[in-house]
């Protein structure tokens, strides 16, 4: 129970990693405050958290809106009385095209969600986190580790998020708040399963073949699952990582080394 009786806010609650983050934090003993724009997703995950015996507070939140973020923090403190962790999981993927062909407005929108919203939410949460030596985890991406065509705009926003996390680690460290990053690669969840099924259908091969071909160059010969990514976040939120800050931990089964 690494997070026994702690309170963690998680943004970007959805059916994939957001859900796993909430459930794994709850399984580790935390009460969770769930933030997303879609009420139905919040309600579904809140019910699953409650089934684990932990409190779930669902707050419909637009993380690009400061008033909405303030309401999230205020609700968390009013309902739970404290704040120990924040996971900035919400993200936006810009148009996947070469940078020369990408609409700058699409890049701006991605940076607003991926970077500025994380800055806003962390800054608002920082005073409450400082009261209990809290921890912030930024969910980044393996896009940091490659420069493949069409991913330029996404890499720009995620590289900025990494720089943000490192700078916040320095700024918030004196108050006892740690800030770290996890960088997942492939995540074997519904979206990727749907995509692999689509690729398999186009090629006329089994979906498992697409999976095995993708995993063939990964050290562990498999793709990480959402709970495995979430468990890494739980570690960084927990006292086991009490001397870890300003770091980026890749969670990719060995696809890239860093």
Automatic annotation (TrEMBL):
Residues 6-191 form the Ketoreductase domain. It holds the Pfam family adh_short_C2. NCBIfam families: PRK07890.1. This is SDR family oxidoreductase. The lineage of its organism: Bacteria, Bacillati, Actinomycetota, Actinomycetes, Streptosporangiales.
């Amino acid at each position: 129970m690494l997070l026994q009786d702690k309170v963690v806010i998680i943004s970007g609650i959805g059916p994939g990693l957001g859900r796993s983050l909430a459930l794994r934090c709850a399984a580790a003993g935390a009460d969770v405050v769930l933030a997303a724009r879609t009420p139905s997703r919040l309600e579904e995950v809140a019910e699953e958290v409650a089934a684990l015996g932990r409190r779930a507070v669902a707050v419909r939140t637009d993380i690009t809106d400061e008033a909405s973020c303030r309401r999230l923090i205020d609700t968390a403190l009013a309902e739970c009385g404290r704040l120990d962790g924040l996971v900035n999981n919400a993200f936006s993927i810009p148009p996947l095209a070469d940078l020369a062909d990408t609409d700058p407005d699409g890049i701006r929108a991605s940076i607003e969600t991926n970077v500025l919203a994380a800055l806003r939410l962390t800054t608002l949460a920082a005073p409450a986190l400082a009261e209990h030596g809290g921890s912030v985890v930024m969910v980044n991406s393996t896009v940091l580790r490659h420069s493949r065509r069409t991913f330029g705009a996404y890499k720009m926003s995620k590289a900025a998020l990494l720089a943000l996390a490192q700078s916040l680690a320095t700024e918030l460290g004196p108050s006892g708040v740690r800030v770290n990053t996890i960088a997942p690669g492939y995540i074997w969840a519904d979206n990727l399963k749907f995509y692999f099924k689509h690729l398999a259908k186009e090629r006329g091969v089994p979906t498992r073949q697409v999976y095995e071909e993708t995993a063939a160059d990964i050290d562990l010969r498999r793709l990480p699952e959402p709970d495995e990514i979430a468990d890494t976040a739980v570690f960084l939120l927990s006292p086991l990582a009490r001397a870890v800050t300003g770091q980026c931990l890749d969670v990719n089964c060995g696809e890239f080394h860093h």
